[in-house]
Amino acid sequence: MIRLFSILYTLCFVLSACTTAPKGPENAVNLTAQLEKVADVHQWQMRGKIAFRQGKEAASLNLVWKNDSGDFDFRLTNFLGVSLVSLNVSDKGSTLEADGETYVDALPEPLIYQITGMVIPVKPLLSWVKGLPIEGDKFTLTEKGLVDTLESDCKTCQNWKVSYGNYGSVKMANGDAVWLPHSISLTQDAASSTAHTQLKIKIYQWNL
User: Fold this and answer.
1) 34-203-26 Cα angle (round to 5)
2) Contact 175/165 with Cβ under 8 angstroms?
3) What contacts 201, CB < 8 A, 6 or more positions away?
4) Which region, left, alpha or beta, applies to residue 55 given φ > 0 means left and ψ of -120 to 50 means alpha?
5) What mean pLDDT comes out for the span 14-24?
6) How does strand 57-68 pair with strand 43-54?
7) Residue 19 pLDDT
8) d(CA 57, CA 84)
């Protein structure tokens, strides 16, 4: 197994925003309408930073993530914009490039585990990053009616818990607007084979 932290330099586990974080809606939203809008967002791109912590190891990197109905390109770069990890997923398979090597598999999860040692449920995550629970998820709401935290009951989700912050209004392709999170924290409790894991994503820009 190649560890992500042996490829990346150990960096401060801090996500500092370079832009003012959105403060969310002033009034309560209609949850049913909000979740329907989020579910209709199949094409999106986010730019920001992502921080990893697993046990005593930590790293923070720039993130560009483009998604098109489940086919996606996920890139991690350093402060100079140099790509360190690139993951491309399509119906033809998954390709991950890191440290000058290329890894191929039918599914992205084995590649992510090979590089990072983390078991990440990719399909649910494509919904979770938008603030959209999947079937079976238990979730709580903010006082404005947006998803605040969620915990999955998915057998392959390995006890991931998600919390959200800094929702902002983002314009959709049809001219409507939807509330999307700009701060996401995912945690996974320690198991027999893995240490406590945390991912933090600070999103500076959503494009739909």
Assistant:
1) 45
2) no
3) 15, 46, 48, 49, 50, 51, 63, 129, 183, 184, 185, 186
4) left
5) 67
6) antiparallel
7) 62
8) 17
Q: Is 88 helix (H, G, I), strand (E, B) or coil?
A: strand
Long-range contact set of residues 172-177: C-beta below 8 Å, sequence gap at least 24 = 172/37, 172/40, 172/41, 172/208, 173/43, 173/208, 176/37
Contacts of 6 (CB under 8 A, 6+ apart): none
Separation of alpha carbons 153 and 85, rounded Å: 29
For strands 71-77 and 57-68, give the pairing: antiparallel
pLDDT of residue 86: 93
Phi first, then psi, for residue 75 (nearest 5°) are: -125, 140
pTM (2 d.p.): 0.89
CA separation for the pair 184, 42 (Å, rounded) = 19
pLDDT digits (tens, 9 = 90+) for 119-174: 788 889 999 999 999 988 999 999 999 999 999 877 667 678 999 999 999 999 89
DSSP designation for 136: T
Q: How far apart are CA 95 and CA 156, in angstroms?
A: 21
* C-alpha torsion 151→157→159→162, nearest 10: -40
Dist CA 157 CA 118 (whole Å): 11
